[in-house]
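Good morning C.,

I know you're traveling, so I'll keep this short. The sequence:
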Amino acid sequence: KTFTMEGSDDQSGLITHTLQHLFRRAAEHRQLRDEDQHDGYHRVEISVSMIEIYQEQLFDLLNPGSIDSGRLTLHNDGAESGPEVRGLHIRSPETLEEAIALYQGGTKLRRLGTSERNTRSSRSHTVFSIYVKRHVDGADEVPAVSKISLVDLAGSERQSTASDYDRARVNEACSINRSLTTLGKVVQSCIARSTSRRADADKAHVPYRDNVLTRLLSDSIGGQAKTLLVVHVTPHEEDMQESRCTLQFAANAACVQERAPPRSRDDRCHREAADGFSTTPTPCRC
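The tokens, ready to paste straight into the viewer:
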């Protein structure tokens, strides 16, 4: 999973590809603004943050000084704007190279360990978020902001496997498994809510608050977000049961439906920002 997200020295991962695409589109729009003197073209700002979830605690990987001394706090559960992580450093890289350097610096601070199958095993979840803010020149409007959360989840572990290592590894495995179990419950609840024919289906309880991971991702699962899930299995016979569970989880997640957002005058602005910056040279209005 980590290879899919990070890539290697000679092969880019999803995060690098995403940053390359966004900075390329931002440069294209900057060129359009420079070539056309009329108001209406938009200015794009890209910023990033990186959070580690380790044993139910949040840590800022873009602020090295806080790893040992400070934990982030999560607030505003259920708010329309999504969860708020107080104390989180959000950096605004000027170039693609600077953005990649920030990400690579954060990965070096991530907690790693040794498992039975992997000498470089992730002991935590990480959430690398990219924020795209679009300002429309000559328009008195609130900037449209979109967020892309790229999540590298730690893998589940059998307790019998983890118990071969020290107590710290056992605690880490228990924390990882609890968070993934809660994620599965959230997916199931979202499916039940989206398939229910009851008039109050939107008010059905989804257990986002049962775990820090699902609280942090509450605006990315089963809401108005578009979610892409990549799962990994092995061809080994001894892993058949875990591979089967992984594939079942993926099949369930594919059934989660996006909820229709409430209509507002800025709907089109936000959709265009999320789709890669519309080239429409006029202010967006509904």
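Safe travels,
E.
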